[in-house]
Every structure is written in C-alpha cells, then in structure tokens.
Amino acid sequence: MSSDLTSFVALAPAYPELLLAIGAIILLMMGVFSNEKTGNTMIVGVAIGLLAVTAVLVAIHPAEGVLFNGAFIQDGFARFMKVLVLTGSAFALVLSVSTASDHNLNKFEYPVLVILASLGMLMMISANDLISLYIGLELQSLSLYVIAAFKRDSGRATEAGLKYFVLGALSSGMLLYGASMVYGFTGQTQLDEIAKVISLGEPSLGLIVGLVFLLAGLAFKISAVPFHMWTPDVYEGVPTPVTAFFASAPKVAAMALFIRVVFDTFEPIAKDWQQIVIFVSIASMVLAAFAAIGQKKLKRLIAYSSIGHVGFALVGLSAGSQTGVEGVSIYMAIYLTMTIGLFACILALRTDQGYVEDISDLAGIAQTRPFIASGIAIIMFSLIGLPPLAGFFAKWEVFLAAVEAQLFVLAVIGVLASAISAFYYLRVVRTMFFDEPNHQFIKTPNELNVVIALTAALIVTYGLTVGGFLKDVAGIAAGSLF
Predict the structure, then answer these.
(1) Could you give the angle at the alpha carbon of 392 between the alpha carbons of 386 and 395, nearest 5°?
(2) Within 13 Å and on the Cβ side, how many CA atoms surround 42?
(3) Backbone angles phi, psi at 72, to 5 degrees
(4) Residues ≥6 apart with Cβ < 8 Å to 118
(5) Residues 442-467: pLDDT tens digits?
(6) Which DSSP string corresponds to 408-455?
(7) Helix, strand and coil in the chain, % to nearest 5
(8) pLDDT score recorded for residue 277
(9) Where does the NADH:quinone oxidoreductase/Mrp antiporter transmembrane domain lie (predicted)?
C-alpha cells in the first residue's frame, strides 16, 4: 500500500495530464449515457470547469521533475505555457456555448475532443524525448483533424478538414524523418542526451539535415512560412468557434515545443538553427504583411495576421538567448488574449442570415454596435503594436531581444512589416467607423460581452496592471531552460 502511495506521489509533476485524461474519459461516458438535449450543455460546462481546474493546478502545484525514464519534464517553462494553453482552450469553449447550435457543434464529442487536444498540447510542452514529442503532437493533431471536419453537412468544413489532414500528415512525415535522422546520427532520442552527443564534436551533415526536417515539421504546426499554406483555407472553412480554438491554444503549444527542441536539443549548434529561424521569421512577417492586404474575407485576414505574428514571435527566438525566450513567452500570452477577444467580437456579430464573413459586413457597426466596434478597434490597434496597448509591449520584448543579439536587420524588417500590416488592420477600423451600416445584428450573448470587456481591458491597461507580473513570470519560465 505504501509503495503504491509512493508511486502516486512520484507522479505529481504529471497530475495535470492525468486529470485531463481521466476527465476526458468521464466526459465521454457522460455524453454516451446522458440525455442529448440537456447533456451536451452540461458537458461543455464541465469541460470548461475541468480546463480551469487543471490550469489552477498547474499554476499553484509546485511539483517539477523528470518522469517516465526521461520522456516527460515539468519545469517553470512548461508550467507557464501550460497555463496559457489551458486558458486558451477554456475560452475557446466559452465562445462556443451560445454559438454551438448555429455551427453544428452542439454534440458532446466536441468538448471531449477539445479536452483530448489540450492533453496532447500539455504532453507536447513537457516532451523531453523525440518519441513522447511525437505522441503528444499526434494526439493533438488527430483531435484537431476531427474538429476541423466536425460540421459534416458543410462542404467547406469537410474540405478544410481534408486539407488539414493531408498536409498535417505530410508535416508529421517530415518531422518523423528528421527525428529518425537525429537518432541515427546521435544514437539518442532523449533531448538532453542528444545535446550532450552533439556537444562532443562537429555536427555531421546528416544531423543538420535531420534538424532541418524536424524544424520543418514544427514550422507547419505554428503556421510559419513556407509551411503556412493550410492556414487561410482551414481558418475560413471551419466554423468560427473552431477557428478561435485553432488560432489560440495549439499555436502556443507548438511554439513552446519549438522553443524546447531548439534550446534543449540543439543548443550546441545554435548558429545552425538560428539561420533557419531567422529565415522563417522574415518570410512569415513579409509574406503575411503583403498577402493580407488583398483579403476580403475576415477569417482569411485573421489567418494571414496569425502567420505574421508567428513571424514576430520568432524574432525573439532568433536571438537564441534567455531574453529572447522571455520575449516569446510574453508575446504568446498577449497574442492569445488578442485572439480570444477578436473572435469573441466576431461571434457577437450575428444577423438573421448568419455570422459576418466579409470585412464589408462590418460596415457601420460603430453606429449599431459601438461596444463591439470599440473592442475590435482596440484589438486591431494592439495587433499593429501601437503604444500603450499590450501589442506594443509584445513587439518591444522580441525586438529588444533581437537588438541585444545584434540582429539589427531582422529587427528593422520586423518594424517595417508592422508598419505595412497597419494598412489592413486600419482598413477594418475605417469600415466600422466610416461606412454606412448594412446589417441588423441580433443581441449579443452575455458571455461574449464579458470576454470582450475582459480582453479589451487587459489590452488597454496592460502596462499598468498585469505587465510587470507577466514579465516576472515569463522571466522565471525562460530561466528554467538555461
């Protein structure tokens, strides 16, 4: 009995993952045996509560360490990123509460899949081995493939799910090939052991090839150029609450995994992976800045915006320093807040014919829906990076890291890309405030109003309220990798 208790206590760093796994099984059984009309709503509520409780457990539970023969690691960086992921997943489910029936998401399988995807994300963040990395990645990906095609009677959603699945399978193959090359030339699968082998001598050409393929597979997951091609089509095709989920939590988890791989595994050959990250960062910022200009669909615009913001986040990672990791951590937290707030605003704009799709559908909402128009304007200005909004501080942190690493050209390109992006963000604001209204909107659900107010308040008051706290916590998280 005492040995069983000792074993259970030894699993303390993995309690959040165990809680989500057990919770997903219980929710699945509840869905199977409950009444369809009342059960689905209850399961969504329980799922949100489960994610919230898990986030609190991660935040306040100090247990850290390495488990499962080195395959799983819990440290300050993992805890920080896990709180962001769980928060993003919980808010994505909140956004779907009142809009689920409109998007055919009012089935108990949807929140269960979100929970399973979140479990995969937590495993990705704590992966300390190439095998556990792949298992976490595929658990997340398989859940997301099903969620993308969840609206089965929609041709667009089915097409989006198929595109995501095919391209996702391709990226998984690239990642596995890279992992096999790394294993073949080092004889190790554990990330820290790989780093020790690499540090013993000059890296071989085969190892560099493995690094390139491994990072290519991860770049797909964060929608970085040139592996971004799925993002606009999937964002546009899937239901808006699903897009909100795709644009938030999975991006944070994939970025966390990207950071852990390059710093824990390939730190001895930092100059090699920095070249790749710098190229991907510049390509993402520049392509997104120009490609978004011609977009007329709102969700496609957001897709290219997310690609650009991944590029900005990678500016900090390119520095290869603790300051850079701290900057990326802060950036992802602020990006998550802006994304959730923006999608809450979009879902709040519903007409008798459906939800807004084109940018022109926002015409004149400053007159008919001033609260929502103000929320969108605040978020758009923050996405540009205008002070004193949160987006300014996010870009300041990553550009500062690049300047400290003497990557002056990269920082300048980032600033210029931000200036270009102002064109399409301000076009949305102009449409809302200066065009004549052309739609009558239905009353906004209360939970969406709360999310809009909360995110807008955080963005506006960031420097005076949570900014200092977030920087301190991000600094501790980044320090755990060094």
Answers:
(1) 130
(2) 14
(3) -130, 130
(4) 20, 51, 85, 86, 89, 249
(5) 888 888 999 999 999 999 999 888 88
(6) HHHHHHHHHHHHHHHHHHHHHHHHHHHSPP----PPPPHHHHHHHHHH
(7) 80, 5, 20
(8) 92
(9) 127-421
Q: Quick one: DSSP state of residue 1? A: -
Predicted confidence band at 4 (pLDDT cuts at 50, 70, 90)? Answer: low
Alpha-carbon distance of 348 to 191, in angstroms, equals 44
Tokens for 468, please give them.
Answer: 């200092």
Residue 5 pLDDT class (50, 70, 90 cuts): low
d(CA 257, CA 58): 17
Per-residue model confidence as pLDDT tens digits over 154-188: 778 888 888 888 888 888 999 999 999 999 998 88
* Three-state DSSP state, 350: strand
Contact 359, 298 (CB under 8 A): yes
Q: What CA–CA distance (Å, rounded) separates 214 from 176?
A: 7
* Angle, alpha carbons 118-121-125 (nearest 5°): 145
Three-state secondary-structure class, residue 353 = coil
Q: Which of 244, 265, 9, 16 lies closest to 122, judged by CA?
A: 16
